[in-house]
Design goal:
The chain is an alpha/beta fold. Helices cover about 45% and strands about 20% of the residues. Helix 14 links the parallel strand 20 and strand 21. InterPro entries: Biofilm_reg_signaling, CheY-like_superfamily, EAL_dom, EAL_sf, GGDEF_dom, Nucleotide_cyclase, PAS, PAS-like_dom_sf.
Length: about 750
């Protein structure tokens, strides 16, 4: 609706529509001319059927109706409107002078009856009055409907509100409460009415509740967001916390205050309020606060809480002039467990480790998990360094016992670095950094131990950082080189293959073995480009070897798990073989059994694709991890390599070494090729040959050779001159760092 002060009280948002019905064309035209400038939408009809058709099709606000029409009269049209429930006002314009026609029209709901001829002013005034009355009726109905909807909405909001809505009288007793109270507190509305608020409030909160439930202030000064604990009477019996927003009823229509006209004073009648259940929010806040300072997996303090407690302990230690120790604990071989048994079992292992470490602590010590398999602990009020040694020894001892993970018996150890305040650092960051450096020194010395920080370790740590930076430039500057350790058929003395081993010609430190720099490559995301280089270098060298002639040599390529996971290794292998014209039968990919276990189906798919190329697959270090014999059936394996740790145990020729014999028996039973690694003595060679392993590699035969040296060896073998003398000569020219 919008106001129109010139004509009507209000008009609808649409244009008012009038139906003019008369069979006299001259009168109908005159009527249209009279009303056309008043902003109405006019529709005409010259007979009863036309009028009925228009009424059926359109909605009209007013019908100006002649009673005499050629087909049927105005009374019949009005009867039609009544039957169809057509809500339109009617003014009858008729030339009949009889009273019956007027009475019949008024009985049928006509608002007015004008006899022809009528004056212009009379008609316009009648039309305005009728439309004004109609619009007032529409507006009244709209307001009544809005009031009814508002009342229904109010009742719905109050009854279905998630909050407790209540009013309290002057005596502190409930005078109104909605149904939410029964859902949250187990008390019905009828039971609460008339009861004092103190029956619900927790005893410890009664003092605050007194001010909340007796609030007399209004507006912005009224109590808001006051938290109270209410005593539930429901079956759960759980204490709940409510956030009460209270206001007095002083300045509202509910009349909680009465006005005394004589003294013009407001009479206080009580308060009303809204109590919102924030129990879940409070618990969530407590949980969030706890999780912000604790490791979710192990329930130990995290880095934030650890540093906070360490800072306080350092202040106390400085004040008391005592020492404290910070330990950095890193688990050995945890990554192997994670890769082989999966992250879920890895998490279970971390939880068990945390439990054992906590049981080995002194009272007052703080153990935290920084992330991954790294733990830290500080020991306040250190009497001597021996105290830290005792705790570190307990840690190592408690980890020696087997861990059981879903039927798997797992053994791990730890490397522990120790820094003492204030000798090894006067700041928190220095202590943690120096303990970390000491821990890495233990790693470098063989793991499974502890070490106190020494300033000399800092230089070694800087060397590692420098090594990481230099490794990134090694590829660009051509400092990497492939070495090859021949694999010998001990029966014929022929070279049947070689294992490719990467070396780094470091400009300062000289020739570095793969074990000295590949771990840094794995940690810093360099394994992919390095592996790409290695594949190209191997195929290029193999092309040179084939040019020498003689029996073809099979080359073994160690494959990084990260490289296999990329998914495009097979295609890269195909392209390299095609580019250098290498037969796939001359390439053998060596994988560790851990690759097979951590994602078996994916590994099967990738290795099958390699086999389709014609490339063979070998399992390196067989028996050192968590291998299952079932994988030998599922995976396309062609060769098993006996790890040098097993070969090293062979110290006497007439001894019994069941692990070696078992591996040889498995390979023979499955029809797989067999290669022994790390053969260094004649006793080892003879025992392996007698047991059924005839292909070997190791220092007894050849150290790893550069491409040039290996190529010369192949030429000598072809010429028949590579006897013992030449073998010694070639080995003698190698740098001692090569091995």
């Amino acid at each position: 609706m919008k106001l129109n002060s010139n004509r009507l009280v209000a008009v609808p948002d649409r244009q008012l529509r009038l139906l003019l019905v008369d069979d006299e064309p001259r009168l109908l035209s005159s009527l249209c001319e009279l009303l056309k400038d008043r902003g109405y939408h006019l529709v005409t009809a010259t007979c009863g059927s036309e009028a009925v058709a228009q009424l059926s099709k359109l909605q009209f606000d007013l019908v100006l109706l002649d009673l005499r029409l050629p087909d049927f009269g105005g009374h019949e049209i009005m009867d039609f409107m009544l039957m169809q429930g057509i809500n339109a006002s009617i003014i009858v314009l008729s030339g009949e002078s009889g009273i019956d026609a007027a009475i019949g029209a008024l009985k049928r709901g006509a608002h007015d009856y004008l006899r022809k001829p009528y004056s212009r002013e009379e008609l316009l005034k009648t039309v305005d009055n009728v439309l004004r009355q109609r619009l007032l009726e529409i507006e009244n109905r709209r307001i009544a409907s809005q009031l009814e909807c508002s009342e229904q909405l109010y009742r719905y909001l109050v009854d279905s509100s998630p909050d407790i809505i209540y009013t309290i009288n002057q005596e502190g007793r409930f005078s109104f409460v909605n149904d939410r109270a029964q859902q949250l507190l187990g008390v019905s509305r009828d039971e609460l009415i008339g009861k004092h608020y103190s029956t619900l409030v927790h005893d410890d909160d009664l003092q605050r509740a007194y001010y909340v439930f007796n609030e007399r202030r209004a507006g912005e000064r009224a109590s808001r967001n006051v938290e109270l604990r209410l005593k539930p009477l429901n079956s759960e019996g759980k204490q709940r916390t409510f956030d009460n927003t209270l206001m007095t009823l002083s300045f509202n229509s509910m009349g909680m205050y009465a006005t005394d006209q004589g003294v013009r004073k407001l009479d206080f009648h009580g308060t009303y309020g809204v109590a919102r259940d924030i129990t879940d929010r409070k618990r969530a806040e407590e949980l969030i606060s706890y999780q912000a300072y604790h490791d979710i997996l192990t329930d130990l303090p995290n880095r934030i809480l650890f540093k906070d407690r360490l800072g306080l302990a350092m202040i106390q230690s400085r004040r008391d002039e005592t020492e404290l120790a910070v330990m950095f604990v890193d688990l050995d071989r945890f990554k192997l467990v994670n890769d082989t048994l999966g992250h879920i079992k890895g998490d279970e292992l971390l939880q068990q480790v945390a439990g054992r470490l906590k049981a080995s602590m002194r009272r007052g010590d703080t153990l935290a998990r920084l992330g991954g398999d790294e733990f830290t602990i500080f020991l306040p009020e250190l009497q001597s360094r021996e105290d830290a040694q005792v705790v570190a020894g307990k840690f190592l001892e408690c980890l020696q016992q087997a861990f059981f993970l879903d039927g798997h018996e797992v053994y791990i150890s730890a490397s522990i670095g120790i820094a003492v305040y204030p000798t090894d650092g006067e700041t928190m960051d220095d202590l943690l950094s120096h303990a970390d450096i000491a821990m890495y020194q233990v790693k470098a010395d063989g793991k499974n131990g502890y070490s106190f920080y020494d300033p000399s370790m800092l230089d070694a740590s800087h060397q590692k950082i420098t090594l990481e930076q230099s490794l990134r430039k090694a590829l660009e500057q051509g400092e990497l080189e492939m070495y090859y350790q021949p694999q010998i058929d001990v029966r014929s003395g022929e070279i049947v293959g070689a294992e490719g081993l990467m070396r780094w010609n470091h400009p300062v430190r000289g020739l570095l073995t793969a074990g000295e720099f590949l771990p840094f490559a794995e940690e810093n995301g360099l394994m992919i480009p390095i592996s790409d280089w290695m594949l190209d270098a191997l195929c290029r060298d193999l092309e040179h070897w084939n040019a020498v002639g003689g029996a073809p040599v099979r080359l073994s390529l160690n494959l990084s798990p990260q490289y296999l996971d990329r998914g495009d290794f097979v295609e890269k292998m195909r392209q390299a073989l095609a580019h250098y014209g290498i037969s796939p039968t001359q390439i053998e990919v060596e994988i560790t059994e851990n690759i097979c276990i951590r994602n078996p189906q994916y590994a099967i798919d990738q290795l099958n694709k390699l086999c389709e190329l014609g490339v063979s697959v070998a399992i390196d270090d067989f028996g050192t991890g968590y291998s299952s014999l079932a994988y030998l059936h599922r995976f396309p394996i062609h060769t098993i390599k006996i790890d040098q740790s097993f070969v090293k145990e062979i110290q006497r020729e007439n001894g019994h070494f069941p692990v070696v014999l078992a591996i040889i028996s498995i390979a023979n039973g499955l029809g797989l090729n067999l290669v022994a690694e790390g053969v260094e003595t004649e006793i080892q060679s003879h025992y392996l040959e007698q047991s059924g392993c005839t292909t070997m590699q190791g220092f007894l035969y050849h150290k790893p050779l550069s491409c040039r040296q290996f190529l010369q060896l192949l030429r000598d073998k072809k010429a028949g001159t590579a006897g013992d003398v030449n073998r010694v000569a070639i080995d003698a020219c190698l740098s001692p760092a090569v091995g």
